[in-house]
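Need a sequence for this fold. Nothing fancy.
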């Protein structure tokens, strides 16, 4: 699949944006930085090594395109770029949507894996598992079996609405 073809986000994600519970703009996404929007305990239930999550506004890009941009900016030999590429046997970067990360400095994307169920896809997160100052190791872990379960686990339907 061409890494630049648009992927369709699942309806659950679009409903959250429409309900103003998922950021619809860069400005709304920045509102997440002013406090704990999603409870740390809820994030830790998905992945014990993280305590915050920042949701990205549409349009969501496929991870292949996002990674290509990182590679161009940072260079092919960058340790972060190489760590990401070392995990491409675990996902299909062209069949994922980059929807969130674990906060400033985490360098840990959260993706929708559209390969098996594009209507209610699993959610995967990038988990760093060690390394040295020049070689990093990571893997993709399933955070939730579906976007609907992810939304429920983070209690997104119960959050205050983003301001307009």
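Here you go.
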């Amino acid at each position: 699949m061409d890494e630049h073809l648009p992927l369709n986000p699942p309806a659950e994600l679009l409903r959250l944006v429409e309900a103003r519970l998922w950021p619809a703009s860069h400005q709304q996404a920045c509102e997440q930085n002013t406090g704990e929007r999603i409870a740390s305990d809820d994030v830790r239930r998905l992945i014990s090594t993280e305590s915050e999550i920042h949701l990205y506004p549409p349009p969501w890009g496929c991870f292949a395109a996002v990674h290509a941009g990182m590679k161009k900016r940072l260079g092919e030999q960058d340790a972060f770029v190489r760590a990401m590429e070392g995990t491409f046997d675990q996902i299909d970067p062209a069949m994922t949507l980059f929807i969130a990360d674990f906060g400033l400095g985490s360098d840990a994307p959260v993706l929708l894996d559209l390969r098996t169920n594009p209507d209610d896809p699993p959610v995967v997160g990038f988990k760093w598992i060690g390394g040295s100052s020049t070689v990093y190791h990571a893997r993709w872990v399933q955070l939730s079996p579906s976007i609907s379960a992810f939304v429920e686990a983070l209690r997104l339907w119960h959050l205050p609405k983003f301001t307009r």
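For context: Residues 63-74 form the longest helix (12 residues).
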